[in-house]
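Q: I have 182 residues here and want to know how they pack in 3D. Can you give me a structure?
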Amino acid sequence: MTFEALAKQGQTTVYNSLVASIGPKIREIRKENIKESFSGFQQVEHRLELVAIIHGIEFINDSKSSNINGTWFAMESNTRPVIWIVGGVDSGNDYSTLLQQVRRNVKGIVCLGHDNIRIHEAFDVTGLPIVDVLTMEDAVQAAYYMGEKGDVVLLSPACASFDMFDNYEARGKAFRKFVKNL
């Protein structure tokens, strides 16, 4: 697998693959075997998972990013304009660490959940459109209407899911369902 083919799967995948290739190299496993294992790589559910492309808008399920770090990497891997779906149970997040990423390529924010005060406090200063919604269906629709061809709708909540869902998998499945219903 070429580096270019690997890079198409996102910067986080590149980082993980580079780290994963060090161990086999140290153990003197042949390059061909390492390449073969990477060429069969399948994208992980709920982690930068491409759900669909609808009218040129790419929908990415990153529900597994239930903390600031995961969301930072999800945003870092994007170079196109992003409509970001964020929110859930906030466990004292310091959203300021995402401010540079948000200013770099986020064009709209959809706050999903019942308590989005801290998200507003962190990102109202950007002047970006911010919409509050109470259901995943409304989040997907709001993000879709904010987007245009070439944009990415990124569900990367930076929060736990327990205010509305049993876990991040259920949140990601709901996202998938409503994207496919568009």
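Q: Anything worth noting?
A: The two ends are 34 Å apart (CA to CA). Residues 11-26 form the longest helix (16 residues).
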